[in-house]
From TrEMBL:
This is Mitochondrial poly(A) polymerase. Pfam families: MTPAP-like_central, RL. The lineage of its organism: Eukaryota, Metazoa, Chordata, Craniata, Vertebrata. GO terms for molecular function: metal ion binding; poly(A) RNA polymerase activity. The gene is mtpap. GO terms for biological process: RNA 3'-end processing.
């Protein structure tokens, strides 16, 4: 198995001899080398010895995380709660496997019991809240509050529990941190350490899904609620939204073959004229339930006429912005594909992270829907660019499809979503570029990309003739007749291209700077790319960058491109 021979490849300055040795081993053994930019949070750890178990398939991770979440509770408690006594108090219901505290509209604890029975035992012991002048909806969930009455059972400590951060550090601090690094490769590693969804944040995301499942299960006891998108695809940043999928496919009897003859009993069910109408009515009812009975769920909006109907709300205890969809299996498959690409080589995650972060700072992307490029489209653009390197860093989707086994076969609503799920079946690529080269190359690539004529296509790994007149055409990987960036207008695309030109120019300037020296070095490399344009508030004490007029910068960039050619 290739994964058992995985070696960390460190494309970083100052690691020359180590890198050479690793590369020799790599060439000799023809085995996969993966850049260990930062250990991804969604790779489960071996809890006994604290070591990484290695790569796990997407579905296996989902199952384990869901099972973990079902044994967990979320408890609001006092900010000075004595952690040790708190856990001792809870342990009367069974062994506690894991726990952590965090702050969000108060202090919360996530407690994972070793066994499912502990949840039942806890439910037996939990009281209904006593409220005066109000009434409560008696819906029992795993979101609880710890109160101390009279002589406190759980005395508070002086300092309170140590809380795990669930939000990113401020941009100013990030820029300072990155400026001290000695290479762009180190800067990307540092960025990921600071911004990537953490182990605890992943647990919390699955727990919120599990709490939602308890609500939906009132109507559909066999349902499942699964996270998708950046919560699980390996490209998630702390604070990203929580995309959830209400999965009713697992309902027993759905795929049972009808006997050819004899008696058969079947359920009487309401019928609707389309799958979409069914999805809308299910989401409408579940959304109503979330609104009226869901503890901690506020600001519920039912957006049922969207292309993909959804229920949007804030989950206050976790501070997650949630989007609940149903019948969205293609998006789930897309998340798995992105996860697989991210696992193929650590540089994929590093580059996607750097580009997504840069794009957010310069408002190329936004959390508000509009005529701009979405994070998803941008991720596909990065993947396409990596397929288009002289030595491709990742294979095409068609190639991944050709490696698929019978168990990988997947057709969703007539769309072929088949691709290999076993990482060890994918031949490693020979690309040895550093993240610095790749980042610089990304900006060059899209500075000169023929957007007017060509479409971006990760299935083929080659630009295709644009099938329709739109500013930006990115073929949907699975629903191939769709353009994932059809919302993007010409002005936003032009802005993106101009910012790519500027990014390439900035990185070339950085190449001549002394890096990461002094007590407070000025932003360089990736840090310089993350400095918002002049006039954007928020960068305290930042020295104004001396800027040449844009035309000069573009001229110098074109010169350098010409020289390169
Ligand atoms: P952030 O939430 O911005 O961090 O990234 P995200 O990848 O989660 O994007 P978003 O929440 O917008 O969408 C969630 C997931 O839905 C994506 O990861 C894709 O799998 C899928 N998705 C989003 N937009 C499209 C689209 O236009 N077409 C298709 N097929 N899938 C999409
Ligand atoms: Mg998302």
């Amino acid at each position: 198995m290739a994964s058992s021979f995985r070696v960390c490849r460190m494309h970083m300055r100052g690691t020359g001899s180590l890198l050479k040795r690793i590369q020799i081993i790599d060439t000799c053994l023809q085995r996969r080398i993966v850049t260990n930019v930062v250990e991804p949070s969604n790779v489960l750890k071996n809890e006994e010895n604290g070591e990484q178990e290695g790569w796990k398939a997407f579905d296996a991770i989902q199952l384990e995380r869901q099972e973990q979440a079902e044994r967990s509770v979320l408890i609001s408690c006092h900010s000075k709660t004595n952690e040790k006594k708190f856990l001792k108090y809870l342990s009367i219901h069974g062994d506690i496997k894991n726990s952590f505290f965090y702050e969000s509209y108060g202090t919360y604890a996530v407690v994972e019991f070793a066994n499912q029975e502990s949840i039942a035992s806890l439910h037996e012991a939990v009281n209904l809240p006593v409220v005066s002048n109000e009434s409560v909806v008696p819906f029992k969930s795993r979101l609880l509050s710890l109160r101390s009455l009279g002589a406190a059972v759980v005395p508070n400590s002086q300092t309170g529990p140590k809380c795990k951060p669930q939000a990113t550090i401020p941009l100013t601090e990030l820029i300072q941190r990155l400026s001290k690094e000695e290479s762009i490769d180190h800067q990307v590693t540092s960025l990921m350490k600071a911004y990537q969804v953490t182990e605890e944040n992943t647990r919390l995301r699955f727990l919120v899904c599990s709490l939602l499942k308890d609500i939906a299960a009132a109507y559909f006891p066999e349902c499942n609620v699964r996270p998708f998108g950046s919560s699980v695809n390996g490209f998630g940043k702390l604070g990203c939204d929580l995309d959830m999928f209400l999965d009713l496919d697992g309902i027993s009897g759905r795929n049972v073959a009808m006997p050819k003859a004899g008696l058969v009993l079947e359920y009487q069910m309401k019928r609707s004229n389309s799958e979409r109408a069914v999805t809308q009515s299910i989401l409408s009812v579940v959304g109503e339930c979330v609104d009226r009975f869901g503890p901690g769920c506020v600001g519920v909006q039912k957006i049922l006429n969207a292309r993909c109907p959804l229920v949007r709300f804030s989950h206050q205890p976790s501070n997650f912005q949630c989007d609940l969809t149903a019948n969205n299996r293609v998006a789930m498959k897309t998340s798995e594909l992105l996860y697989l690409y991210g696992c193929l080589d650590g540089r994929v995650r590093g580059l996607v992270f750097a580009v997504r972060c840069w794009a957010r700072v310069h408002s190329v992307t936004s959390s508000i829907p509009g005529a701009w490029i979405s994070n998803f489209s941008l991720t596909v653009m990065v993947l396409f660019y990596l397929q288009r390197r002289a030595t491709p860093l990742i294979p095409t989707l068609d190639h991944l499809r050709s490696l698929a086994g019978p168990a990988d076969k997947s057709v969703i609503e007539g769309n072929d979503c088949t691709f290999v799920s076993d990482l060890s079946k994918i031949q490693p690529q020979d690309n040895t570029e550093t993240l610095e080269q790749l980042l610089c190359g990304f900006f060059h690539f899209y500075s000169t990309f023929p957007f007017a004529r060509k479409s971006i296509n990760i299935r083929k790994g080659k630009e295709q003739t644009k099938p329709e007149v739109v500013p930006l055409h990115i073929q949907n990987p699975f629903e191939v007749s769709l353009n994932v960036s059809k919302n993007v207008n010409a002005a936003q695309l032009e802005r993106f291209v101009a910012l790519c030109q500027e990014g390439a120019w900035q990185l070339e300037q950085s190449a001549t700077l002394t890096r990461g020296t002094g007590h407070a070095p000025s932003p360089w490399g990736l840090a310089a790319l993350l400095v918002p344009a002049a006039g954007t508030p928020g960068i305290k004490g930042r020295k104004k960058r001396k800027r040449e007029p844009a035309s000069e910068r573009i001229k110098s960039l074109l010169e350098s491109l010409k020289n390169k050619i």
